[in-house]
Amino acid sequence: MSGETVATPPALPAGTLRVIPLGGLGEIGRNMTVFEFDGKLLIVDCGVLFPEENQPGVDLILPDFEPIRDRLGDVVGVVLTHGHEDHIGAVPYLLKLKSDLPLIGSGLTLALVEAKLKEHRIKPYTLTVREGQREKIGPFDLEFVSVNHSIPDALAVAIRTPAGLVLATGDFKMDQLPLDGRLTDLRAFGRLGEEGVDLFMVDSTNADVPGFTALERSIGPVLDQVIGKAPRRVIVASFSSHVHRVQQVLDAAAAHGRRLAFLGRSMVRNMTIAEDLGYLHVPEGVLIDYKKAKDLPDDDIVYMSTGSQGEPMAVLSRMANLDHAIEPGPGDTVILASSLIPGNENAVYRVINGLTKLGATVVHKGNAKVHVSGHAAAGELLYCYNIVQPRNVLPIHGEHRHLRANAQLAIDTGVPAERAILGENGTVVDLKDGVATVVGQLDLGFVYVDGSTVGEITDADLKDRRILGEEGFISVIVVVDSQTGKVISGPEVHARGFAEDDAVFEDVKPKIAAALAEAAGNGVRDTHALSQIVRRTIGRWVSQRLRRRPMIVPLVIEA
């Protein structure tokens, strides 16, 4: 396995394909890869990453577009493998840089993207493709392959150039009895393998899970049983794009004579699109508007909502906090029909605890089979490696443990260890003559969306927010004589986020005054230098006396 990198990649040699993952390696989310050949760029996916608890105030995290920001005129297309947020969520922010970048994807994927772009007032150029279709986009010859995932219409993409053939799976699994009958096309994988796949870029999310991912249809009987036995209202939370899961909830509601209402803006939007395009089949008379649903008897209604990941502003979290018109209580059943994205565990369990405290029965992956993954487990990946027999492998879409496990599977099936590349975001891989080589490592960062600002919040800002939230805040105001430097008023000390009263700081005020007097005696008059003296003095005292490291904002004023 290769993890060796150098810093700055060389100029791209003629006849070589360059591959640069800008996101999705070492993390679950913000999937994005750039391919370069003959001066042209092809982008595959452009997703977001959702913030963790140590990133307070952040709404979304984008891939770092910096390596291509000055080359957007060279981009011949943006291929979107499927419609999940971690693959399409950053498209509006990319198109704000250049709005006419062509978007290429399946019908449902593009419909979801277009609805998202409409909110940003962007009308995109699109090319709708389907499995089996080939398109020549600049120097890239693209072939689209059907794959099964937890959203309809997912596609893998084969990228042919004179430098070699790349097969990128996108997110996929090998459900042999899919609800929509749409299998992962292993015959196409085998045909491409016979042609010769020079670089296989493979979904790693479940690479460390042995065996095979359970069938999606195995969820149906469990949902049917739980909904059938529920004495009052049923609230089901899932991803707002999981059409197959929503279909099974709709079918279970219909089977037990219940009506179903969608909750959450994205759930309503996505399911309306899915129904309009024929991907969601709503039994007659089952769907009801949320506002009318409130008038039904409690045992006649199922709510299908967002918030399965504990997002604070999503419907389910607001219900748990009694900040929603629907207030769960005794006899209500809440089903979390989704996975736990790494990093969201605490938020999800906080919601589960909140709902349980209100008296609701909470059914989740930990106590019932109400979710199966959308990603291939180790057994399925082994099948793919044996079918495709790639010359080189670059595991994508996963944390480091997933990437390593995926690379090991490739090696176990005969891929030479030096051809199983363990990369990270910004790793530059060149492909030529059947050999993939790491030639550089770009320095990429996190791009934070915070309200209306994009990229303005830094890691230093987030550190300040964490300190404010965890350690508190102290302000110190001192007025000094501009001629002598002596203190003529203060110091005034005010604190926020401390259990102690401000009176506790009476002991440190003489120390601050003494430190300033000493500085004045040494001829120090600069207010910035005096502010730093105040910061150090009170900082040491608070650390020793109160065992805290708060944010300290000193203000020294000359008079």
Automatic annotation (TrEMBL):
E.C. code: 3.1.-.-
Annotated function: An RNase that has 5'-3' exonuclease and possibly endonuclease activity. Involved in maturation of rRNA and in some organisms also mRNA maturation and/or decay.
Highest taxon in the source lineage: Bacteria
Gene: rnj
Keyword tags: Cytoplasm, Endonuclease, Exonuclease, Hydrolase, Metal-binding, Nuclease, RNA-binding, rRNA processing, Zinc
Binding site for substrate: H371, V372, S373, G374, H375
Protein known as: Ribonuclease J
Location(s), subcellular: Cytoplasm
HAMAP family: RNase_J_bact
Membrane-crossing segments per the record: none
Family, as annotated: Belongs to the metallo-beta-lactamase superfamily. RNA-metabolizing metallo-beta-lactamase-like family. Bacterial RNase J subfamily.
Broad EC category: hydrolase
Subunit structure: Homodimer, may be a subunit of the RNA degradosome.
Pfam families referenced in this protein's UniProt entry, alphabetically: Lactamase_B, RMMBL, RNase_J_b_CASP, RNase_J_C
Keyword Protease attached: no
SMART domains per record: Lactamase_B
Main location: cytoplasm
Record keyword Zinc present: yes
Domain Metallo-beta-lactamase: 29-223
